[in-house]
TrEMBL record:
Molecular function terms from GO: transferase activity
Protein name in UniProt: Polysaccharide pyruvyl transferase family protein
Keyword Transferase: yes
Top-rank taxon, per record: Bacteria
Keywords, in A-Z order: Transferase
UniProt cross-references to InterPro entries, sorted A to Z: Polysacch_pyruvyl_Trfase
Amino acid sequence: MKYLQNQGHEVEIIDYKPLYLSTRMELFAVTPKWRSRRLAVRVAYLVAKFFVRIWVNARSCKKEFDDFKNTFMCVTRDRYRNNSELKKNPPPADVYVAGSDQIWNTNSENGRDPAFYLDFAPPEIRRVSYAASFSVSEIMPEYKDFVRGMIQRLDSVSVRERRGVEILKSIGLSEGVHVLDPVFLLGRSFWDGFSGKKISGKYILVYDFDGNDGLREFAKEQAKERGLKIYSVNNYKRTSYADVDYYRAGPQEFLSLVKNAEVVVGNSFHALAFSLIFEKDFYVFCRSRHQVNSRMEDLLDLVGLSDRMICHAEQASSPSVIDYEVVGKVLAAHIEQSKRYLNGAICGDF
């Protein structure tokens, strides 16, 4: 959203909250203005924001996220409960954009919801995806026809994982472009300024979706060896072995926790993404649901850090030192390509 605003667009997020998500997460969406061409180009952007997904089940964090939404996000006046409501009264826009985290994951209901493929948009309005994620390594056969039918109606298609491009090809769609997650479009200087107040102390940050035994023991060993405390951020429950538990943290505090950590250990895509942005030492543990590991594997492979992913205890021994000069050059090239795609897709040039 912020990147689009910086490009001169007027951005509005569609307040989309279907029943199947009403107790798990809030979804917002987008609308821009292409001032540089003196055109009233408006873009509606249907997006499951990373900072919402990070905390989807943490009811105690709801106020933090409501406050964040009210302060930083421009949301449609109308709230929509299903694709039919969106079709009857779509928010006015010149372009609709769908993205990003797991919106096309057909293992979840949102991946089977036509709204996330912009089905509601009037046919004469441009529809594009930015960094849409399947999250998994393959689509189950029973959903392939549905996904193909939805995506082939879009004017421009981009996906977040390189594996996503292969998935598109496997269902007969060859025009998909690989781009980076939206968080990379803004760069470190923006996130430095946007993060919350500095977190004191020297610590390992743990973000564990699964209650992973291997992750726990690794974090404890690292803390002992390096003389660090363990700080935890967890969207399900408190972490019993943590010295400090930030289970009520909001988006800005989460960013600050990553930024100020000595080491980040977790199994979250966005913990990985922000570890790269803030150039942290980090380790990524495999999730218990193996298919969802593809999004983290893809990003690590892209930047040449696959040995930072740990699926078995013996892998945790001695990964290579991270050379952020090299990583930065790789990311910079892909960020430029991602911006080029998004700007072109919105204007109809891609």
